[in-house]
């Protein structure tokens, strides 16, 4: 009886210690956005607290699982008091700081998972006291220092994940003493030196990953003899040597062999086909030589074959015999053999490869022959790349049957004939490169059906005719449109104004004529514009003044006349300007790009004068100066006098008009969005705040951009940064709409805008972002579909929550429709655009489709049969109906 009471007393004391330790752990949590630990209090026994598992007999904590709860904080040293703890899982949170030394006191600990957090400091030497440990996962943190030499004090360790940290030093040979080790992952660190030969004693090893380090030397031969290995991943290092001849026999369980981006040499072993389970073979960017074994077809489970950037092949007729063998690999999805020494004809058997094939890349070789018509059999192909070879013949019509193709790259060959109109059937195509061939005929109008096309390059061919309007009006063209070095004629169609997202336009070295269409000024994202070596004429239009993103502009060797526009010196990103060999006249500007003679070329324009002295042009006469800017009276006095007259009329008439209607004069709603009350933030500051817009900070992706969580250094304020993806159609319009709306609205249930940023990034690309207050409970849509997503949230929406949210959204809409200076229709109200703060209070956001109602009204009054741009609305929709639809949709 006495002994039993002593045991009960000891158990009670131990339980109290566990309870206090758990509360101490909770106290170190700074943020708990999901309320996961809110029930860690006296209302429940601690063994019933979420994430806590106790033993049945003595009610001691044996497992602590707080994974994927978005917790933020550090780990309390009191965790060392949970003396019976066998498992810790803090995976996928925002924990930081160092691992407490006290974890070394947990002698029963078998599993420690702290992966995907922000822990730092060194890996504890005291962790080796936990001799029962079987699993350590510290992946994706900020741990530094080296691996403790005493790691071999963990004889039961089976899994060791240390990948994606900042570990340095050499790999300790003592790892070779962990005879039970099954998984060893040290990838994406900064380990140096050679791979220890001692690792060859890990006879139970299955997953071996040392990729993305700075390792050098030969791979120890003993590693190639561990028959249990299924994944051998050492890519992106400085390793060298050759593959052992019997590798396919000594590694019979091999499924993945990644050796890419090293310095391996020698031939590929013929026995490789004996590794019949091999699924992924990647040796890209090494120095392997010789013929590829023609028995690779024995690898019937092969999915991915990457041989790119080696010295394989002998530029002989038998180089591609292995392609025929690969037709037996029925699961094959990726074949990449580009930039080697493969020669000889392209075998017809390429059309017999697996119908599961998605990527076929053979560019940068010396392959001859033609593309077999049977290529259409590869029905699941996403990418076909045969650039920079010696292929001849025509592009087969059957290529149009590859309906899932995204990329077709056949550039730098010797193809002849016409561009097949059947290419227009590939409606998913986003990249078409046919440049540097000998194609003739016209550009097919059917390419206009490729509504996802963002890059089209047919330059350096013998194409004739005009530019089809169906092609020049493709709004999806965002990266590049290159038609240069052909025999194209006619004018540049005004439909070019549809290319509002285009980055590069090159129509140089053709026979185009006429004037530059004013609609070209709508291509405001253009960075490079080449129109040189044509027959364009007339003045350089003022409409091009909107192209403020331009980096390089070449209008040389045409027949342009008139003066060099002043606005060219105001382009902030312009680095190269070529206006040579035209008929331009008058004074050369001296500002902007014109300050540096090495960045401009104006040769062959005999009527130019002035400019900087380095240009060595004659001085301008008084007549030239007057012609450049017009007379002083025209350029200065007339606009000033006109402005004064207009201002007087406005001042005199506006009060009368307002008083006559019974209105009071209100402060105008127009003006700069960036007034004094808004914080001014640069691209650099936002880059720092969001950890360089890292995926770890990404909290949402929409149709026009991405939203990142950030912390501003100025006041440690947590914000949400919405970065517009300007390559997407309508993104710029969405940005402008959101700015116009948000500068006019203020309400407790509307998301609060902190500022905007319109700048350029470090590469000189346009950058536009909106910065909002951060609302930690996410959007309403996620809360409404917790069960469908299978998430185990502790708090679900109660009826009271739902009622309050409905009332708050209704309040916001009532304000937008009736109490703004200019009423606003949101046009995209849905649960995912309703955000919740800590108190579950609703805030309406995302005004990218918003319309000011006076604009909608004006639109209807002018044309009742046109769409007003409301998503999903076609035909006539009265403004009142817009408001009703918003309420109904909510």
In short:
The protein is of the alpha/beta class. The strands form eight sheets. The protein has a 24-stranded mixed beta sheet, with no helix packed on it.
Please describe the topology of this protein:
Blueprint lengths: L1 H26 L1 E3 L20 E3 L6 E5 L6 E2 L13 E3 L4 E4 L13 E3 L4 E5 L12 E3 L4 E4 L13 E3 L4 E2 L15 E3 L6 E2 L13 E3 L4 E5 L12 E3 L4 E4 L5 H4 L5 E3 L4 E4 L13 E3 L4 E4 L13 E3 L4 E2 L8 H6 L7 E3 L6 E3 L13 E3 L4 E3 L14 E3 L21 E3 L21 E3 L6 E2 L13 E3 L4 E4 L3 H4 L7 E3 L4 E4 L13 E3 L4 E4 L13 E3 L4 E5 L12 E3 L4 E5 L12 E3 L4 E6 L11 E2 L5 E4 L11 H8 L2 H30 L21 H7 L8 E4 L3 E8 L4 E8 L6 H12 L10 E8 L5 E8 L6 H5 L1 H4 L9 H20 L5 E2 L8 E3 L5 E3 L6 E2 H10 L16 H11 L1
Parallel strand pairs: 3-5, 4-6, 5-7, 6-8, 7-9, 8-10, 9-11, 10-12, 11-13, 13-15, 14-16, 15-17, 16-18, 17-19, 18-20, 19-21, 20-22, 21-23, 22-24, 23-25, 25-27, 26-28, 27-29, 29-30, 30-31, 31-33, 32-34, 33-35, 34-36, 35-37, 36-38, 37-39, 38-40, 39-41, 40-42, 41-43, 42-44, 43-45, 44-46
Antiparallel strand pairs: 1-4, 2-3, 47-48, 48-49, 49-51, 50-51, 52-55, 53-54
């Amino acid at each position: 009886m006495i002994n039993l009471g002593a045991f009960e007393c000891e158990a009670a004391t131990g339980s109290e210690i566990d309870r206090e330790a758990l509360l101490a752990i909770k106290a170190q949590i700074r943020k708990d956005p999901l309320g996961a630990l809110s029930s860690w209090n006296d209302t429940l026994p601690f063994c019933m607290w979420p994430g806590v598992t106790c033993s049945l007999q003595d009610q001691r904590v044996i497992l602590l699982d707080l994974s994927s709860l978005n917790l933020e904080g550090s780990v309390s040293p009191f965790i060392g008091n949970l003396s019976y703890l066998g498992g810790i899982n803090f995976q996928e949170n925002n924990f930081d700081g160092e691992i407490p030394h006290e974890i070394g006191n947990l002698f029963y600990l078998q599993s420690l998972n702290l992966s995907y957090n922000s822990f730092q400091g060194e890996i504890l030497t005291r962790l080796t006291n936990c001799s029962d440990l079987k699993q350590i996962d510290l992946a994706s943190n900020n741990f530094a220092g080296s691996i403790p030499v005493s790691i071999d004090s963990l004889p039961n360790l089976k899994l060791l994940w240390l990948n994606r940290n900042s570990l340095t030093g050499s790999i300790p040979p003592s790892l070779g003493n962990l005879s039970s080790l099954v998984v060893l992952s040290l990838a994406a660190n900064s380990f140096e030196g050679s791979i220890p030969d001692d690792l060859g004693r890990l006879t139970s090893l299955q997953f071996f990953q040392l990729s993305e380090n700075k390792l050098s030397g030969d791979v120890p031969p003993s590693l190639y003899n561990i028959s249990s290995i299924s994944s051998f991943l050492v890519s992106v290092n400085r390793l060298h040597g050759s593959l052992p001849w019997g590798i396919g026999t000594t590694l019979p369980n091999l499924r993945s062999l990644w050796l890419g981006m090293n310095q391996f040499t020698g031939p590929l072993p013929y026995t490789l086909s004996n590794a019949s389970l091999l699924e992924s073979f990647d040796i890209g960017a090494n120095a392997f030589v010789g013929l590829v074994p023609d028995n690779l077809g024995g690898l019937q489970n092969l999915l991915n074959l990457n041989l790119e950037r080696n010295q394989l092949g002998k530029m002989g007729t038998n180089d591609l015999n292995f392609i025929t063998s690969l037709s037996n690999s029925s699961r094959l999805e990726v074949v990449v053999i580009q930039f080697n020494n493969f020669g000889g004809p392209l075998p017809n058997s390429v059309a017999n490869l697996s119908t599961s094939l998605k990527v076929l890349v053979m560019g940068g070789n010396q392959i001859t022959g033609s593309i077999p018509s049977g290529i259409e059999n590869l029905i699941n192909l996403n990418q076909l790349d045969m650039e920079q070879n010696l292929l001849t013949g025509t592009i087969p019509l059957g290529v149009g049957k590859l309906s899932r193709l995204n990329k077709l790259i056949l550039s730098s060959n010797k193809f002849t004939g016409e561009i097949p109109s059947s290419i227009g059937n590939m409606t998913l195509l986003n990249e078409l490169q046919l440049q540097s061939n000998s194609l003739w005929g016209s550009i097919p109008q059917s390419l206009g059906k490729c509504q996802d096309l963002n890059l089209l390059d047919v330059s350096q061919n013998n194409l004739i005719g005009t530019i089809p309007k169906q092609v020049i009006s493709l709004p999806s063209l965002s990266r590049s449109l290159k038609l240069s070095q052909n025999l194209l004629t006619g004018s540049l169609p005004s439909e070019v104004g549809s290319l509002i997202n285009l980055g590069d336009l090159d129509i140089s070295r053709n026979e185009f004529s006429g004037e530059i269409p004013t609609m070209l000024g709508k291509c405001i994202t253009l960075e490079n514009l080449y129109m040189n070596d044509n027959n364009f004429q007339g003045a350089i239009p003022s409409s091009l003044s909107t192209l403020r993103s331009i980096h390089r502009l070449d209008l040389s060797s045409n027949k342009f006349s008139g003066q060099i526009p002043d606005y060219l010196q105001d382009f902030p990103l312009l680095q190269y300007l070529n206006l040579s060999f035209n008929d331009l006249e008058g004074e050369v500007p001296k500002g902007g790009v014109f300050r540096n003679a090495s960045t401009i070329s104006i040769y062959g324009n005999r009527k130019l004068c002035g400019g900087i002295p380095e240009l060595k042009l004659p001085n301008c006469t008084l007549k030239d100066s007057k012609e450049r800017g017009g007379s002083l009276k025209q350029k200065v006095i007339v606009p000033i006098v006109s402005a004064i007259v207009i201002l007087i009329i406005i001042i005199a008439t506006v009060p009368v008009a307002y008083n006559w209607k019974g209105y009071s004069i209100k402060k105008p709603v127009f003006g700069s969005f960036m007034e004094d009350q808004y914080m001014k933030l640069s691209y650099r500051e936002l880059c720092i705040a969001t950890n360089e817009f890292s995926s770890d900070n990404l909290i949402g992706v929409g149709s026009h951009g991405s939203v990142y969580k950030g912390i501003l250094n100025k006041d440690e304020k947590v914000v949400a940064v919405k970065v517009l993806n300007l390559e997407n159609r309508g993104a710029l319009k969405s940005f402008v709409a959101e700015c116009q709306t948000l500068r006019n609205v203020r309400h407790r249930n509307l998301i609060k805008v902190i500022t905007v940023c319109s700048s350029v990034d470090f590469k000189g690309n346009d950058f536009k972002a909106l910065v909002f207050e951060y609302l930690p409970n996410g959007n309403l849509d996620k809360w409404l579909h917790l069960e469908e997503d299978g998430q185990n949230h502790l708090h679900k929406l109660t009826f009271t929550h739902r009622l309050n949210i409905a009332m708050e959204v209704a309040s916001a809409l009532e304000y937008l429709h009736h109490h703004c200076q200019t009423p606003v229709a949101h046009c995209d109200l849905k649960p995912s655009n309703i955000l919740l703060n800590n108190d579950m209070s609703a805030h309406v956001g995302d005004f990218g489709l918003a319309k000011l109602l006076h604009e909608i009204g004006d639109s209807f009054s002018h044309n009742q049969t046109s769409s007003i741009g409301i998503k999903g609305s076609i035909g006539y929709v009265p403004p009142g109906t817009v408001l009703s639809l918003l309420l109904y949709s909510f």
